Amino acid sequence: MASITAALAAALAQMVLNYSVGKKNLATHDGLHRQTLEALNRLGSKAVELADIDARAYAALNELWKLHKADDRRVREFPAAVDAAIQAPLGVLNCALELLRLMKEIAGTTNAMLNSDLAIAAILADAACRAAVWNVRINLPLLTDAVQRSALSTRTEKSLAEASILTRAVESACAAPSA
């Protein structure tokens, strides 16, 4: 669900830009809007791809969980399956963070009538970040390397904090009275 939420965030931000591109009163931002629109399209597609990758990773891990712990296949494939089950939501986290960075960059430069939609897009991207972090957290105990586990935990918590800051920045910019 995290990846689909990120894709929805991207789509909503694209809608905001589609109603901003080519507007005379926003002409000074047209280049930024067009560039951001392309990036949002790319990230939205990536989020949808990550949904499939995440589903496959979970299915593989789930299949291995059903095997006895001493089963050769489980012993051989489990570490890679755990890694895949962590990397997929990490990809979603990175994608959603990039969405938030883009939204922060365009906040205050788009059609003011769609400020609520841009704020909602940021909230959705933040929700995608939070969901992705939960999906990482649930699998971290499966890692046998304590150093790797700690590093990933620190990395995801730092990203989660950044997402919160970016979301608040977009919401603040969208709530500011337009000139």
Task: Summarize this structure briefly.
With 179 residues, this protein is mainly alpha-helical. The protein has helices at residues 2-18, 30-65, 72-106, 115-139, 146-175.
List keywords for this structure.
single chain, 179 residues, mainly alpha, Four Helix Bundle (Hemerythrin (Met), subunit A), 5 helices
Q: How would you portray this structure in words?
A:
By secondary structure, the chain is mainly alpha-helical. Helices cover 80% and strands 0% of the residues. The protein has helices spanning 2-18, 30-65, 72-106, 115-139, 146-175. The longest helix has 36 residues, at 30-65. The radius of gyration is 19 Å and the shape is elongated.
List the helices and strands and how they pair.
Elements: H1 2-18, H2 30-65, H3 72-106, H4 115-139, H5 146-175
Helix pairs in contact: 1-2, 1-3, 1-4, 2-3, 3-4, 3-5, 4-5
Judging from the principal axes of the Cα atoms, what is the shape? elongated
What is the tally of beta strands? 0
Q: How many helical elements? A: 5
Taking the sheet with the most strands, its summary is: none
Tell me the domain tally: 1
Report the C-alpha radius of gyration, rounded: 19 Å
- Stretches with pLDDT under 50, minimum 5 residues: none
User: Average pLDDT value?
Assistant: 96
What is the CA–CA distance across the termini? 38 Å
